[in-house]
């Protein structure tokens, strides 16, 4: 079904569906508005990631300057990811109501000062506070995924989310290279090491600030325009905050994805915080060498998370939503197994190889997760994205508090136990079930539930009379691809305005 008029087709460089979402993903393109939004989103998230983890590779220098204990470092690591827990949930709601452009740019500008202030701290408390407030910027991940889900159609949304999130997460690996290099260059110009690390923080701070202005100047919320303009024209209905939150919070699928994401992305955040210090201390490496090894973990995002999104899309093309669920469970479980092995091996070369394999699986699982998220709810997409993204930070906080705070566990032991947690917390994926598509172990409902039934259940009869549900109606039609080739797609439901059955 194509609901767009022929006179609108030349408006877009890329082919689009009935919601004007692009049905192609051309990474080399900067075509407005779809691909330009992609490049703005991943680069801004990349900058925020660099800022949030800029301290990690310099911890051996910073701990000497500020007299940090192991507990201080552990607390600061927890603080760096805990701030974004509620920020991500709030970001999801802000995206639903105001659009990803204003939501992300505002947060980036609000958190930039904390990065600048890192250069003037003189105590463990100051170190904890700047890492805490800088970490809020990681909530831009939610706006990134919301933006991509608003710009790209169901057949390519997995790879769009995978590339934007993965290339953004590259910041976690890039900062392991960037900050030691910048630190060394500043030292070469004559600064002492305790002055050089402070000056180095102006680089990520400036980069982060710049991306906010790029988004405001060149970004666009939706294929047809920005939220404010579309609402003013009456082309996008104004939604109620309470109902957006209500339909998101009551969808149990979002909570399960929040849990499982806590043990793929949450683990990735944890490793970003501890891996450089782990190799530096265990194998007596130079700071620069430890940074290069640690960087390889994050830099795997160049292909691993995007690869997860692509695999999710390919599995959906053949097996539908059930294929997306199965590939996520398999990939994340393998990540847990390799994480266990990483904590057990004692050779430097073997540790590096196992770490890289582990990084590929855990990051691919992140991409696969957001191949599923866009289908959980159409009306509350931002809330579900925020819940899932926030779950990633909760997982990071809990993991660091339990396994890497203080001296209760050695880092080797903590890594092994973290792997066990990954395997256990991935099991609930088998509970996710879509009545129109099925789940891991069961097929679609015998009650012939359609995509329209599922997505229109989020709107009441009065809202339908106003036409508020039209976006969900288009999305339902476009999401038929989640049936996969094996399911019968010959039946097309009538597009009346009657309320969906109560069992959805």
TrEMBL record:
Gene Ontology CC terms: endomembrane system; membrane
GO molecular function: nitrate transmembrane transporter activity
Keywords: Membrane, Nitrate assimilation, Transmembrane, Transmembrane helix
Region described as Disordered: spans on this chain: 463-504
Membrane topology according to the record: Multi-pass membrane protein
Compositional bias per record (Basic and acidic residues), positions renumbered to this chain: 477-495
Transmembrane segment boundaries: 42-61, 73-90, 102-121, 128-147, 167-187, 199-219, 325-346, 352-376, 383-403, 415-434
UniProt KW Transmembrane keyword: yes
GO biological process: nitrate assimilation
Top-level division of the source organism's lineage: Eukaryota
InterPro entries in the cross-refs: MFS, MFS_dom, MFS_trans_sf, NO3_transporter
Residues in Major facilitator superfamily (MFS) profile domain copies: 37-431
Subcellular location: Endomembrane system
Family the entry assigns: Belongs to the major facilitator superfamily. Nitrate/nitrite porter (TC 2.A.1.8) family.
Protein name: High affinity nitrate transporter 2.5
This protein's encoding gene: LOC101506906
């Amino acid at each position: 079904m194509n609901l767009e008029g022929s006179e609108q087709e030349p408006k877009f460089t890329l082919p689009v569906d009935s919601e004007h979402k692009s049905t192609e993903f051309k990474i080399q393109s900067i075509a407005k508005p779809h691909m330009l939004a992609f490049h703005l989103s991943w680069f801004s998230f990349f900058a925020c990631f660099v800022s949030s983890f800029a301290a990690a590779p310099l911890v051996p220098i910073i701990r000497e300057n500020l007299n940090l204990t192991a507990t201080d470092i552990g607390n600061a690591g927890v603080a760096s990811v805990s701030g974004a827990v509620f920020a991500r949930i709030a970001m999801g709601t802000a995206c639903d109501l105001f659009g990803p452009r204003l939501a992300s740019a505002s947060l980036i500008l609000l958190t930039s000062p904390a990065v600048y202030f890192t250069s003037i701290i003189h105590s463990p408390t100051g170190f904890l506070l700047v890492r805490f407030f800088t970490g809020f910027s990681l909530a831009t991940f939610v706006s990134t995924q919301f933006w991509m889900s608003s710009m790209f159609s169901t057949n390519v949304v997995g790879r769009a989310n995978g590339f934007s999130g993965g290339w953004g997460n590259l910041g976690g690996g890039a900062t392991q290279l960037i900050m030691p290099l910048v630190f060394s260059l500043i030292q070469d110009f004559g600064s002492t090491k305790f002055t050089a690390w402070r000056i180095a923080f102006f680089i990520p701070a400036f980069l982060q600030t710049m991306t906010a202005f790029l988004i405001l100047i060149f970004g666009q919320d939706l294929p047809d325009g920005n939220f404010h303009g579309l609402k003013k024209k009456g082309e996008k209905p104004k939604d109620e905050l309470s109902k957006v939150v209500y339909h998101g919070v009551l969808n149990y699928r979002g909570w399960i994805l929040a849990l499982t994401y806590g043990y793929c992305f949450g683990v990735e955040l944890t490793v970003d915080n501890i891996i450089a210090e782990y190799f530096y201390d265990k194998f007596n490496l130079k700071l620069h060498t430890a940074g290069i090894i640690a960087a390889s973990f994050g830099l795997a995002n160049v292909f691993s998370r995007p690869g997860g999104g692509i695999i999710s899309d390919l599995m959906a093309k053949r097996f539908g939503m059930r294929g997306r669920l199965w590939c996520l469970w398999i990939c994340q479980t393998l990540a847990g197994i390799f994480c266990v092995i990483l904590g057990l091996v004692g050779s430097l070369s073997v540790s590096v190889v196992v770490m890289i394999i582990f990084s590929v699986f855990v990051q691919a699982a992140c991409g696969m997760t957001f191949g599923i998220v866009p289908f959980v709810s159409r009306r509350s997409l931002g809330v579900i994205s925020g819940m899932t993204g926030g779950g990633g930070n909760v997982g990071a906080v809990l993991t660091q508090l339990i396994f890497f705070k203080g001296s209760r566990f050695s880092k080797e032991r903590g890594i092994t136990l973290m792997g066990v947690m990954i395997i256990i917390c991935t099991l609930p994926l088998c509970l996710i079930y879509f009545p129109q598509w099925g789940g891991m172990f069961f097929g679609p409902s015998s009650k012939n539930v359609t995509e329209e039934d599922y997505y229109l259940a989020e709107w009441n009869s009065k809202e339908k009379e106003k036409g508020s549900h039209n976006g969900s109606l288009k999305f339902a039609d476009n999401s038929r691809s989640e049936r996969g080739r094996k399911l019968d797609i010959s039946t097309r439901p009538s597009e009346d305005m009657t309320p969906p059955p109560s069992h959805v």
